[in-house]
Specification:
This protein is an alpha/beta fold. The protein is 36% helix and 16% strand. Helix 7 packs parallel to helix 11.
């Protein structure tokens, strides 16, 4: 499977690239991407997704495009400039990706584009499936336009899959990289009320779902990339502390304190997403890490890690 990958130097992209034969990587810093990809056989090409169409030469002979590029959401306060970067890196960047594909005569068969469960907004205890309507707020609006931009590839003859990705659990970055050091010190605690739902996915399963989305014709449109075992924030805290064999005795961090600490981002940290992977399960995808307890034991146990896995 000849693939083009954006976001290849990111938390998920690094693992995906390791599962692909001779991928082409589009990056703002192709030299860094090539160094990071070594000793893998990759071809790195330069692209500024917010400012220019993707280079048409990258798509020649490719069968699939994995589009994972995007400014990190949880790094830093949401200033006006930060929100513009979040928007441009996803919506404008995806439009520029499609513009690059338009100029290619022999196009790839499929576009697998990242999205996020933020599409649904803060929905309390409601179980959310792919057919549910979008929610409200900045991140929900961002996801709607992100998916709309990717959907334009259908007019070019590509099968389009939009993966609404939950909280990705892995040891080399993401949520666990932030939480595990605190929990090992006995400083773990719930956030807000602790009753909000967290929809998560182990990184090996996400990589497997990305690959399955490219290979299986039954995958198209929005797909919830979450494990079938969403938990509340309080349950997550208790389970992570138990796997690490550490206490989690501190009281919940109240929302006003979070707001002072991180600004508008605090709303995202306590938003409730009870998302179910209905379409992935209906298509026959088998999660290797379906329960939070099992996933954390696999990722955090002795000698374990977040390898890419298989579809």
């Amino acid at each position: 499977m000849r693939a083009v990958v954006t976001g290849a130097t990111g938390f998920v992209g690094r693992s995906l690239v390791g599962e692909l034969p001779s991928p082409i990587v589009l990056s703002r810093d192709p030299e860094r991407a090539a160094r990071q990809g070594a000793p893998l056989d990759i071809t790195a090409m330069g692209w500024e997704p917010s400012h220019q169409p993707a280079p048409a030469a990258a798509f020649e002979g490719a069968e699939v495009v994995f589009h994972l590029a995007g400014e990190p959401i949880a790094n830093g306060r949401w200033t006006a400039a930060k929100k513009r970067r979040l928007w441009d890196s996803r919506v404008t960047g995806t439009r520029h990706l499609i513009a690059g594909l338009e100029s290619v005569r022999s196009r790839p068969r499929v576009l697998v584009c990242a999205s996020a469960i933020d599409y649904y907004g803060d929905r309390g205890d409601q179980e959310l499936r792919e057919s549910d309507s979008p929610g409200e707020g900045f991140l929900a609006e961002l996801c709607v336009e992100w998916e709309r931009a990717a959907g334009a590839a259908e007019a070019l003859g590509l099968r389009v899959v939009q993966l609404r990705i939950g909280l990705v659990l892995g040891t080399s970055g993401g949520l666990l990289a932030r939480l595990v050091p605190l929990f090992r010190l006995g400083l773990g605690s719930p956030l807000g009320t602790g009753r909000q739902w967290m929809s998560w996915i182990a990184k090996p399963d996400l990589v497997a779902l990305l690959l399955a989305s490219a290979k299986q014709e039954t995958f198209s449109g929005p797909i919830n990339a979450t494990a079938p075992d969403p938990v509340t924030n309080r349950q997550f805290t208790k389970t992570l502390a138990g796997v690490l064999r550490r206490p989690a005795w501190l009281p919940a961090v109240p929302y006003p304190a979070l707001r002072i600490a991180v600004g508008e981002l605090a709303g995202s940290l306590v938003a409730s997403h009870r998302v179910l992977p209905t379409r992935a399960l209906d298509a026959g995808f088998a999660f290797q890490h379906a329960s939070l307890q099992g996933a954390l034991e696999h990722l955090l146990g002795p000698g374990q890690g977040d390898g890419a896995g298989t579809p």
